[in-house]
User: Which sequence fits this backbone?
């Protein structure tokens, strides 16, 4: 059975999307990107909302860019090999292989995906993740916290949900980024 992991880069004050501007720096350095690739090596299915998919589809062709470093090529190859499910009522077609569209989020279907999978799954994007969290589907949370406080936006954790978590791994990077992985009790 695969674990469902919710992971995003967040601001220090807990926002997965800033109301204005970006979330700050720290994740773009090769050391961090290589680590992110290692963290997601066992993920074979990505669950996305439309906006997150449109951001991540970059990885379908990232390996073709000139002078691409090996850690970028390695992450791109892993992403390309994984299954992708995009939850959207508006997206008409996908532009990556191994990708399908679902018109609504069905917690029972995700439970079945987890039960049938020999590998981990990832849910990405605060709106879709909120649905998975409320349905009790998320097994682990991986936060990559920047050094910026952005003051508003979409929170990593949805309002109105109580979670008791255990810290199972942490790491600080020279860029100031902090990685923290929590498991649901």
Assistant:
């Amino acid at each position: 059975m695969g674990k469902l992991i919710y992971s995003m880069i967040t601001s220090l004050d807990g926002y997965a999307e800033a109301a204005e501007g970006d979330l700050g720096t720290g994740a773009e350095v090769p050391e961090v990107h290589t680590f992110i690739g290692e963290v997601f090596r066992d993920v074979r299915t990505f669950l996305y909302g439309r906006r997150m998919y449109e951001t991540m589809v970059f990885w379908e062709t990232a390996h073709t860019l000139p002078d691409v470093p090996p850690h970028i090529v390695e992450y791109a190859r892993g992403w390309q090999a994984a299954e992708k499910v995009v939850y959207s009522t508006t997206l008409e077609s996908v532009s990556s292989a191994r990708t399908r569209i679902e018109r609504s989020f069905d917690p029972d279907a995700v439970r079945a995906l987890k039960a049938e999978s020999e590998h981990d799954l990832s849910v990405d994007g605060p709106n879709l993740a909120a649905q998975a969290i409320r349905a009790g589907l998320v097994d682990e949370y991986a936060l990559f916290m920047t050094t910026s406080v952005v003051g508003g936006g979409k929170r990593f954790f949805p309002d109105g949900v109580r979670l008791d978590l255990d810290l199972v791994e942490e790491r600080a990077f020279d860029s100031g980024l902090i990685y923290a992985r929590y498991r649901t009790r």
User: Anything to note?
Assistant: Strands lie at 4-10, 15-18, 43-49, 83-87, 99-102, 120-124, 140-145, 153-155, 165-172, 178-184.
